[in-house]
Amino acid sequence: MKTPSCRAGSGWQNSRGGAESIFVEHVNQAGKTSTANTASLAALLRELVDEHYVISAAESKRPFECDGLPVYKQMPGLVVMPASTDEVRQVMRLCHQRKVPVVVRGAGTGLSGGALPHPDGVLLSLTRLAKILEIDPGAGLARVQPGVTNLAISEACAPHGLFYAPDPSSQIACTIGGNVAENAGGVHCLKYGLTVHNVLQLTVVTVDGGIVTVGCEGMASAGPDLMALMTGSEGMLGVVTEVTVRLLPEPSHLQVVLASFDELAHAGDAVTAVIAEGIVPAGFEMMDSHATRAAEDYVGAGYDTDAAALLLCELDGTEEEVRDGIEQVTAVFRRHSARSIRVSQNEAERLLFWKGRKSAFPAVGRISPDYYCMDGTIPRRMLSRVLTDIARLSRDYGLRVANVFHAGDGNMHPLILFDQSKPGELQRAEAFGAEILRICVAACGCITGEHGVGVEKLEQMLDQFSDSELAQLNAIKDALDPDGLLNPGKGVPTLKRCQEYRSA
After folding, report:
1. Among the residues of 188-288, which ranges form H helices?
2. 132-249, what's its fold?
3. Cα four-point dihedral sign 311, 268, 450, 243
4. What 3-state DSSP class applies to 424?
5. Taking Cα atoms as reference points, which of 244, 236, 228, 132 lies closest to residue 183?
6. Which pLDDT does position 16 carry in this prediction?
7. Of 336, 354, 328, 343, which is closest to residue 188 (Cα–Cα)?
8. How far apart are CA 166 and CA 250, in angstroms?
9. H or E element at residue 311
10. What is the separation of C-alpha 316 from the centre of its chain, rounded to a whole number of angstroms?
11. Where do the structural domains in the chain lie, given as residue ranges?
12. How many CA atoms lie within 13 A of 271 on its CB side?
């Protein structure tokens, strides 16, 4: 088993404290902008973008002070909402000339503080770039602007019998630009891949206002894989203004196998066994008892609320393929002590099964004043062990955990339940979350699957990577953004901070 490259030392009691320290360091490096300079910059920006979309008033900026992780809040210096690639280019050119930091924001659904504004910088909101520019059914692709929501792509393609495969739980609101920034996955990423596997081409505005195109509309492109570099870069390397995505034919037949188990370990072992049989479900999700009961109370999906764990396994393809897959999956579930097995009998029932899973996050919000959503990835074979470790930590920290995650690809989303109004409980939840991520690293996994690093996980980057690996990441950042103006303080800790952390 891989040994983590470092351990937390004194002065790093919880992830929030460490992340905030690193963020402040980056912010300070970027320098301060006076009120007069901010007003001057706003005036210049209003010459480039419709004046109604250059926001400087404090109350009007308030909705942009955080993303989906509201623990971290920071008012932006200015908010700018361009309407075209050309306007993005002009804004970036001006900010580069004046050495103004820029943070790019999509719908604000991120859960790692990745869109946390810079107090003396520009928050570049891309919500007005929301056009579907082209759908080519013959080629199986769509070209869209970054502000288009994930679900809108599939809805636009449905008349052609096509769909866009990555489907995060927030797909009704999250944008394709944000999906690219975080390399989002979703329920169907096990079979159809993450964002990086379904994006063909990107148009990117560089930090100095240039335009580059990475990838191509074909199946392969020459040279280093810049598409993979840009996907998941969290707005630190460039501003994506157009995305060409791959579309897939809608399967003719879909059914879901819903199984309940008396023990989490049995459910985890069943996931591993299904994949070992050579079965590749379209979606393969797990929920524990806390999540199951909350979801059932919320939407009435017909879940077994007495079970310790629930599995949803979707098969798609021809009718014959699905029938054979169901037989194999149910046989595996029985061998692993499933207490009940149900198969969706029609489309309405299939959608109801999934409605419960996709509603799990808001449902858990009804049973706890607050929750802290973690995001780590582990090898499937380690599911049972890691779930056991999380249960132990839950007892140690005195905080309940609702486990909801993409079991098929090992992407875990433990929801730590707490009450922020109680002194010290937020800090305890954050410390608990940091321990979960360290367990993921120790299990040969990763500190994030699809939520990104942002501000939240800067400290855990020091657990995941060695000094030499972090030096390579910093070198890439320096090559494309030498002044550190794009989303400063996010994603990759500075080498100075790494040294301080390791010597603490």
Report:
1. 189-192, 195-198, 226-230, 264-276
2. 3.30.465
3. negative
4. coil
5. 228
6. 40
7. 354
8. 13
9. strand 309-317
10. 25
11. 33-125, 132-249
12. 31
Query: What mean pLDDT value characterizes the chain?
Result: 91
Q: Which residues contact 466 (CB under 8 A, 6 or more apart)?
A: 5, 6
Number of separate helices (H) and strands (E) present in the chain: 19, 20
Q: Which residue has the tokens 């930090």?
A: 207
The helix/strand/coil state of 271 is: helix
CATH architecture entry for 33-125: 2-Layer Sandwich (3.30)
Contact in structure between 484 and 477 (CB atoms under 8 Å): yes
Which of these, 138, 130, 163, 139, lies nearest to 217 by C-alpha position? 139
**With pLDDT > 90 as the criterion, what percentage of the chain qualifies?**
86
Sole residue written with tokens 């103004």? 100
Query: Quick one: tokens of 276?
Result: 């070992």
* pLDDT tens readout for residues 414-450: 999 999 999 999 999 999 999 999 999 999 999 999 9
Bridge partners (DSSP) listed for residue 245:
142, 199
Query: Does position 45 have pLDDT exceeding 90, yes or no?
Result: yes
Which H or E element spans position 200? strand 199-205
> In whole angstroms, what is the distance from residue 54 CA to residue 124 CA?
10
**What residues have CB less than 8 Å from 159, skipping those under 6 apart?**
none
- Gap between the Cα atoms of 58 and 430, Å rounded: 30
Chain segment 316-344, per-residue pLDDT in tens: 999 999 999 999 999 999 999 999 999 99
Q: What's the predicted TM-score (pTM) here?
A: 0.90
Contact 145, 172 (CB under 8 A): no
